[in-house]
């Protein structure tokens, strides 16, 4: 296996090669560090590369492998999104307004390390993880390895670009309004937003008033399942990714949740139709049915989003360094009172019950991953907070409702648009039922494979 194939082999396979002594942890790390040095000047996927620290971690992992220790990710490199704490590094949030380096890992990073992962670096985000594109005045623009004129998405844009280009085998993302699923869609990855609280957010508990989840961005379903087992501390996800899902009742839906308005593109709509046809061939019962989206759902999600950004900005030591658009967004969030937020959270279960009622009759809902392809790099310069939000929402209307309900949702790569940029379908599962999404996702991966494709910048 040459270095390029090794880079794209996937975390689960790399863990096997390391355990069998076919490769060493330092050798594997150097493959990625060389690729980052060669390719990341074009992509800007990483905000910081921890080359020296990662080499120490890889050497330690190799000693443990040679001593016979076996852990799920021992010696496997991984990237961490830059809104998650890594000891000794600043948590940058895509801005220069951040504080000093943190002294301790976030709980999810601690769990990844405990499983043996080597932390390569921290990936780029839009300022305060606000947008579905990854461009900042502080760090510049992150580009899509499939077509560098376009964004990889956001806010986990650096994580998406890094995995797609083979700079790491998988990465940690966070998802408060679609921030795992959007860049996974436009980078050709399997991305999973788990059930709320499946993966701990500590020390940033209840981020964005309960909208945010941490989850995997990976090239294969099995890699994502392995990540989820490690990060959640729960078993069964890898086994789910390896078993057949059985016959499922699946609902196809291309309806845009109100009050959002968006035109679902031809390619995105065709992906849902093609997925429906394949699901029927695989033996599933497929119907067309829309969830009952109350208009209040998106409105309440937006209120939690605005107020969450306001609270995060207040915690910064240098908020005056933020971009004007971010400051204005946070200012709007400050208009949402504690009393109003308490009332919104109090009725969350009623809104969620209405949306999830469809799962009384179906096992999975399939929607487009996004309504359109990504924006061009630079398209959002000099736009205000509300204009940017409104225009972004027209591209990505299918995510926020499921952050509000907290239920799991994943995106499965599905072809390419006219610019050669990947698109996807979204699988939405019952609350707490990531297992079905992993089983179904893996079945689709076998029948409609995607991991063999490589972007031009790779």
Automatic annotation (TrEMBL):
SUPFAM superfamilies: Amidase signature (AS) enzymes. Pfam families: Amidase. It is an enzyme of class 3 (hydrolase). GO terms for molecular function: amidase activity. PANTHER family: GLUTAMYL-TRNA(GLN) AMIDOTRANSFERASE SUBUNIT A, MITOCHONDRIAL, TRANSAMIDASE. Belongs to the amidase family. This is amidase. It comes from Mycolicibacterium hassiacum (strain DSM 44199 / CIP 105218 / JCM 12690 / 3849) (Mycobacterium hassiacum).
């Amino acid at each position: 296996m040459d270095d390029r194939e090794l880079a794209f082999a996937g975390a689960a396979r790399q863990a096997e090669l390391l355990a069998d002594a076919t490769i060493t942890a330092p050798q594997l790390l150097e493959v990625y560090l060389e690729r980052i040095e060669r390719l990341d000047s074009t992509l800007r996927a990483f905000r910081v590369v921890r080359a020296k620290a990662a080499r120490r971690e890889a050497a330690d992992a190799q000693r443990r492998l040679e001593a016979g220790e076996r852990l799920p990710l021992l010696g496997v490199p991984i990237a961490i999104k830059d809104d998650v704490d890594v000891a000794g590094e600043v948590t940058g949030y895509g801005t220069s307004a951040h504080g000093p380096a943190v002294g301790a890992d976030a709980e999810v990073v601690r769990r990844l390390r405990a499983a043996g992962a080597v932390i390569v670096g921290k990936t780029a985000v839009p300022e305060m993880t606000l947008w579905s594109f990854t461009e900042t005045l502080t760090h510049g623009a992150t580009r899509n390895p499939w077509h560098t004129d376009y964004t990889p998405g956001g806010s986990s844009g650096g994580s998406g670009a890094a995995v797609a280009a083979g700079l790491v085998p998988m990465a940690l993302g966070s998802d408060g309004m679609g921030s795992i699923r959007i860049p996974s869609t436009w980078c050709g990855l399997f991305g999973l937003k788990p059930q709320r609280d499946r993966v701990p957010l500590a020390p940033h508990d209840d981020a964005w008033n309960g909208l945010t989840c941490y989850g995997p961005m990976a090239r294969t379903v099995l890699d994502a399942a392995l990540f989820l087992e490690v990060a959640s501390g729960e078993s069964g996800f890898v086994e789910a990714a390896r078993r057949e899902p059985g016959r499922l009742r699946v609902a196809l839906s291309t309806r845009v949740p109100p009050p959002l308005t968006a035109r679902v593109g031809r390619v995105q709509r065709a992906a849902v139709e093609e997925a429906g046809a394949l699901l029927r061939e695989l033996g599933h019962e497929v119907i067309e049915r829309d969830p009952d989206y109350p208009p209040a759902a998106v409105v309440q999600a937006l209120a939690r989003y605005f107020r969450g950004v306001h609270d995060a900005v207040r915690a910064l030591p240098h908020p005056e360094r933020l971009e004007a658009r971010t400051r204005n967004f946070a200012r709007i969030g400050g208009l949402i009172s504690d009393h109003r937020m308490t009332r919104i959270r109090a009725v969350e279960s009623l809104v969620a019950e209405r949306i999830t009622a469809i799962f009384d009759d179906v096992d999975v809902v399939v929607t487009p991953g996004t309504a359109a392809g990504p924006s061009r790099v630079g398209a959002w310069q000099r736009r205000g907070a509300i204009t940017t939000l409104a225009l972004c929402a027209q591209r990505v209307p299918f995510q926020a409702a499921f952050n509000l309900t907290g239920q799991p949702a994943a995106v499965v790569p599905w072809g390419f648009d006219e610019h050669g940029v990947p698109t996807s379908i979204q699988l939405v599962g019952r609350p707490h039922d990531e297992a079905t999404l992993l089983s179904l996702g893996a079945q689709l991966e076998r029948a409609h494979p995607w991991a063999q494709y490589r972007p031009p910048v790779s």
